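stage 2 :: seqdesign
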């Protein structure tokens, strides 16, 4: 360790980062598109939950507000931001472009072991009846599947851009997967996407992933009236 220019970590900064990351994870798990009321962030309750004072929680909320994830309303408190239908549709279109390109790249960049992991990890629910019986578990698996496609593309820029969209994409996927038996289509689509990537068929994998995302856009546009 001699001659290394190591700067000690500042405990206050470490705590701020940990609280920020924890709060972002908590918000990410919320079903922010259900109900009429915006989800409210209670500083006191969050501080107790995380075992910290209200100060780092308040600072984390301020940082999340700068990122557009939280909005402070005078005399009411901090609330998680919900996007409008038009904003969500725009996000899905961009996500479709990013994830479909990631799928195309995955067919040439992902290792055999990584591709084998797709089938191992994401065909647990190989029929829609089982998926419906474990809807909450499937919903989380569905989200992880799309994250994994992005990861397998091995593009730093695609990953960074998709991270900016993921918060609301995760929420809208979790909300809509339970509607109008979308779960059956999801199970079938995932298996077809996995097969295309296994065959390293770049064009087919890209098209399947794009179509899958755009089907979500069609559903949101036609049926999701709670975003209006």
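stage 2 :: out
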């Amino acid at each position: 360790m001699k001659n290394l220019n190591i700067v000690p970590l500042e405990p206050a900064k470490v705590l701020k980062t940990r609280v920020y990351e924890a709060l972002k994870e908590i918000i990410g798990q919320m079903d922010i598109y259900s109900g009429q009321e915006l989800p409210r962030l209670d500083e006191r309750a969050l501080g107790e939950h995380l075992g910290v004072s209200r100060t780092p929680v308040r600072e984390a909320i301020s940082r999340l507000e700068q990122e557009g994830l939280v909005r402070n309303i005078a005399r009411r408190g901090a609330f998680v931001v919900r996007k409008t239908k038009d904003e969500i549709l725009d996000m899905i279109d961009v996500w479709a472009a990013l994830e479909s390109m990631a799928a195309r790249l995955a067919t040439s960049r992902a290792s055999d072991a990584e591709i084998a992991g797709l089938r191992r990890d994401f065909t647990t629910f190989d029929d829609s009846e089982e998926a419906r019986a474990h809807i909450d578990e499937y919903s989380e698996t569905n989200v992880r599947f799309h994250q994994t496609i992005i990861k397998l593309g091995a593009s730093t820029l695609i990953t960074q851009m998709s991270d900016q969209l993921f918060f609301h994409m995760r929420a809208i996927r979790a909300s809509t997967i339970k509607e109008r038996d979308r779960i059956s289509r999801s199970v079938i689509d995932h298996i077809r996407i996995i097969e295309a990537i296994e065959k390293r068929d770049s064009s087919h994998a890209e098209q399947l992933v794009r179509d899958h995302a755009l089907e979500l856009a069609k559903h949101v546009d036609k049926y999701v009236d709670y975003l209006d």
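stage 3 :: structure notes
- The first strand starts at residue 40 and ends at 41.
- The two ends are 59 Å apart (CA to CA).
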